[in-house]
Write a structure and sequence with these properties.
By secondary structure, this protein is mainly α. 61% of the residues lie in helices and 0% in strands.
Length: 257
């Protein structure tokens, strides 16, 4: 089966170079060097706990002593900048691509997939494009594609009327377009907000919060941006949670309450 990454490699290399240059200018921290001493994450210090939980949740690794030494003096004032920096680092983007493939595709990403998607997942609609490509580029019938998209995005099967509508839509347009449109429906957006709250904060959102973030997802805010905001919130700072599996959208809670 061909890789889901688009085939326009020449254009991709240009985009890769431009975006990589922007990331470098933004001061995103590099990956921890091999053999870096891990931080003592068992300390009661709230700043250290927050740093450790953030690295585990959004970078997929244990914070090092150097990480703690660098970030601890900057907290809590710079906690949003801290979470965003780690989440958008090469490690954070690598984790996001891994989790999206695990959630929406039948196989893991190749190095070429990481090279292509890594810089793009922090761009406007980049995660939606990644998700749509993964769902669309699988060897399935149209009915099976729609059913799998509903299962992946909503943890339920489509009704007969939904199956009929979306299969006709896929035949009339493209599977990639259908997957992207499905991910932008109100039901999916609301489910993703609920999953983010459960996994990053440990509780369900109030209706006003769910409506607010669902609208933000519609107008271009990415799932990664939602997680950054939740991870940097006062509640998360006071009681940090570790949930690396939530790097891709979820419908249910994956972390213990």
């Amino acid at each position: 089966m061909p890789s889901p990454a688009p085939t326009h490699r020449r254009a991709a290399r240009v985009v890769l170079a431009v975006v990589t240059g922007v990331v470098a200018l933004c001061g995103v921290t590099p990956a921890a060097p091999a053999g870096a001493a891990p931080a003592d994450c068992g300390l009661a210090d709230v700043e250290v706990q927050f740093i450790c939980a953030t690295y585990t949740a959004v970078a997929g690794r244990t914070a090092s002593e150097a990480d703690v030494a660098y970030w601890e003096p900057k907290l809590p004032a710079s906690r949003t900048f801290f979470v965003a920096t780690v989440a958008r680092s090469s490690e954070g983007r690598h984790l996001v691509v891994d989790r999206y493939y695990s959630r929406f595709y039948e196989a893991g990403p190749t190095p070429a997939d990481h090279q292509f998607w890594g810089p793009l997942v922090t761009e406007p609609n980049g995660l939606r494009k990644l998700e749509a490509a993964l769902l669309a580029n699988q060897d399935r019938t149209v009915d099976s594609f729609v059913t799998n998209a509903f299962s992946s995005q909503l943890a339920r099967e489509p009704s007969e009327s939904e199956l009929e509508y979306w299969t006709e839509r896929a035949d009339a347009t493209t599977r990639n377009k259908v997957a992207a449109e499905l991910s932008n429906t109100l039901e999916v957006r609301r489910a993703r907000v609920g999953g983010a709250y459960l996994n990053d904060l440990g509780y369900a959102p109030a209706e006003a919060s769910r409506a607010y973030w669902a609208e933000r997802l519609r107008t271009g805010t990415s799932y990664l941006d939602v997680r950054i905001a939740l991870r940097a919130s006062p509640d998360a700072y006071a009681s940090p949670r570790t949930c690396p599996a939530a790097a891709a959208p979820q419908v249910v809670a994956l972390c213990p309450s």
